[in-house]
Amino acid sequence: MPTVLIIDDNAAIAVALEVLFSLHDIEALRAASPEAGLALLEQRSAAIDLVIQDMNFTADTTSGEEGVALFRAIRARHPDLPVILLTAWTHLNAAVDLIKAGAADYLAKPWDDNRLIATVTNLIELGQANRALSQRMQSELRQRRDLEKHDLRGMVWQDPATERVIHLACQVARSDVPVLISGPNGSGKERIAEIIQANSAVRDGPFVVLNCGALPAELIEAELFGADAGAYTGASKAREGKFEAADGGTLFLDEIGNLPLAGQMKLLRVLETGRFERLGSNRERQVRVRVVSATNADLQAMIRAGTFREDLFYRLNVIELNLPPLAARPADILPLALHFLDGRKTLDAHAQAALQAHGWPGNVRELKNVMQRACLLASGDVIKVTDLGLPAAAAPSPALSAASTADAEPDRDAISQALRRAHGVVAQAAAELGLSRQALYRRMERLGIARA
């Protein structure tokens, strides 16, 4: 239940407010003097959502100086706590000064019950939302500071969805258990694998990459385990496999779903024992390798179809990190785009909106290619929407056009339409409107627009 502190020396006023608030499920605490009110705030500040204070406490005084002093003391100790000033003596100059200093409202006695309840309810809801936002931002800041202690291999991100994956990657990096990174092609799975290696106990060892989808099935085993001379046609001399090359480090197996069943069986044995034989050899070799694998395939469906071993899946999938597609990480789009430009050019507002609106089926890899092409095609230092070459990107949206005019302020309809086009993603709607995410949140709160 929300709680209001009433600081007023008039008991009748305090009781009337207490009764009014009780009818609207708001708890009221009372203090008869500024000193008692400040003491109660110190004791129960975490539970108090709002203060209503009188402006005069000494008999026959009407200057409001006591109220000003009390307000400034509250503001100094609790700068985010909303305060409503209540007095029978309305001084416009004092009201203006205190509103400028941060007072939430200034009401004259006798007050209008409906207006007072509406004001209190709105301020409590806004305060709760601000506190929740502040707590979330502080949590994100702590997590970001924690991540900064790790080697992130130059990873660029802004979206919370990406940060969760990076945070988990850093958490599991120190263990030696296998990790499976799932996600679509081009989403950045190899970079996550690099972060795991860079923060692992074997970070000084080799980091070896094998794309299982880039080789014919008959050559994958030789690439993994090596081969003796004559093991297959064209093998004129013995060759070392990826497991031997990765001994004492990390082996990253990309597109693991393309590994043939025979190779899957041998891989399972290596994961369990660390032992294997080269093709064409009977001599066992022992290695210590951290295996990180990645896939864009539905391995569970492949298990049902009999093309992927269930026991291997569970051996690889001790820890799974799912990296969402770029379209599901909209706050990453602009930071990545600017990173790929590397300070050579900038993006105008329409180009930024087009980047945010695009579906990115090719994910980060597609974005990198688009930015490289746009950098070459743009005639000046600013990349325009036509330089991007994205489908349906030539014409800016009506909302952006309206917001881009001189000193234009997006109205309720423009914001609502932008949020619908962005499917409720505030960062994307903000970019379309040419605003920061925080600026859009403030306008949504002011206009009473709920996030979809």
Short description:
By secondary structure, the protein is of the alpha/beta class. It has helices at residues 11-22, 34-44, 65-77, 92-100, 113-147, 160-173, 189-198, 217-225, 242-245, 261-273, 299-305, 310-316, 333-341, 349-357, 363-377, 385-388, 398-404, 412-421, 426-433, 437-447, and strands at 3-7, 27-31, 50-54, 83-87, 105-108, 179-182, 207-211, 250-254, 275-277, 284-286, 290-295, 319-322, 346-347, 382-383. Strands 2-1-3-4-5 form a five-stranded parallel beta sheet, sandwiched between helices. Strands 7-8-11-6-12 form a five-stranded parallel beta sheet. Strands 9-10 form a two-stranded antiparallel sheet.
Q: Which outline best applies?
A: elongated
Number of strands: 14
Order of adjacent strands in the largest pleated sheet: 2-1-3-4-5
Low-confidence stretches: 393-407
* Proportion of strand residues: 5-15%
Number of helices: 20
What share of the residues lie within helices? Answer: 40-55%
Helix/strand-derived category reads alpha/beta
Main β sheet profile = 5 strands, parallel
What does this structure look like?
Helix content is 48%, strand content 13%. The protein has 20 helices and 14 strands. The strands form 4 sheets. The protein has a 5-stranded parallel sheet with strand order 2-1-3-4-5, with helices on both faces. Strands 7-8-11-6-12 form a 5-stranded parallel sheet. α3 (65-77) links the parallel β3 and β4.
